[in-house]
Amino acid sequence: MTRRLVLVTGASSGIGKALAREFAANGWDLALTARREDRLIEFAEEMKAQYGVDSLTIAADLSKSSAPKKIIDAIAAADRQIDGLVNNAGYGLPGTFTETSWKQQSDFIQLMLTSYAELVHRVMPGMEERGYGRIINVASVAGLMPGSRGHTLYAGVKAALIKFSQSLYFEGKAHGIHSTALCPGFTYSEFHDVNETRSMVSKLPNFWWLTAEQVAMAGFNAVQRNQPVVVPGLWYKFLTGLNQILPNDASMWLMSRNSGSFRQGEADTGKGAKTAA
Fold first, then answer.
1. Which of 80, 81, 104, 231 is deepest in the core (most CB within 10 A)?
2. What is the dihedral of CA 256, 154, 90, 192, to 10 degrees?
3. Range picked from 51-55, 139-143, 207-211 for highest mean pLDDT
4. Cross-strand partners of 134
5. Domain 5-268 is found in CATH 3.40.710.10
6. How many other CB atoms sit within 10 Å of the CB of residue 174?
């Protein structure tokens, strides 16, 4: 019997790579996409040797509007169906809203929100027809907390992904489709190296940090249980839970006090956006 196939975006490193590994360890074949094809091929060979699973590798840049269709068409051309989708590709955009160009912001929205929604829209009808599907949208604890100076659209986009996933949860229940918003906090990966903020985030205490493997396991287990939102790590569960019970003004004050200097430091780097996938 053909194994189920999961499409993982941003699969060349970090959380995406860890999620692909988690699915492979549980017997899923992989469709891996990111911009760096050499990394995808190397990882696919590793998964074949370690777990005996097959992989499709598709080089694509999801900040381009043509990418989602290209990816889906490549999988269809290989005569495979998509049983799972992990929307993970992404990056940070340092600087305040007016310090960045609209082209940068537009590309950010295309990759971080529009591509996620389009991929779901393209794969979900087949999942409904077959009565089975697993969808993980990698969001962030930022989507559950007040916004802060810099990375202006980041929290808003992540909040949208959480609400999107919750709606998919309700729409998919009758069709055997599980949808989960995975909301990690700071996670050891290339994300901060690519955005040149490693020196700043490294000042955070150890209990702020998660491993990509911890995040991936939490996401996989949650989507199997059909849990619409999951926050990995006790510290982040505490923070997001506290934010839910505090008055909005208090939450905004705490965010300003504790993260303002960090976000300011990122904005002052003056660096443009670079994808981490």
1. 231
2. -20
3. 51-55
4. 84, 178
5. no
6. 9
Known catalytic membership, residue 154: yes
Strand order in the sheet with 84-87: 55-59, 29-34, 5-9, 84-87, 133-138, 177-182, 229-230
Instruction: Work out whether the CA dihedral 61, 63, 67, 68 comes out positive or negative.
Output: positive
DSSP-H helix ranges across the chain: 14-25, 37-51, 67-77, 102-109, 115-130, 154-172, 191-194, 198-201, 212-225, 234-245, 248-268
What is the residue extent of each domain of the chain? 5-268
Burial 71-106 (b: 16+ CB within 10 A, else e): bbebbeeeebebbbbbbbbbbbbbbeeeebeeeeee
Structure tokens at 183: 């909301």
What pTM was computed for the model? 0.86
pLDDT tens-digit series, residues 51-62: 999 999 999 999
What integer pLDDT is reported at residue 193 of this predicted model? 47
| Catalytic residue (choose from 91, 116, 154, 236) | 154
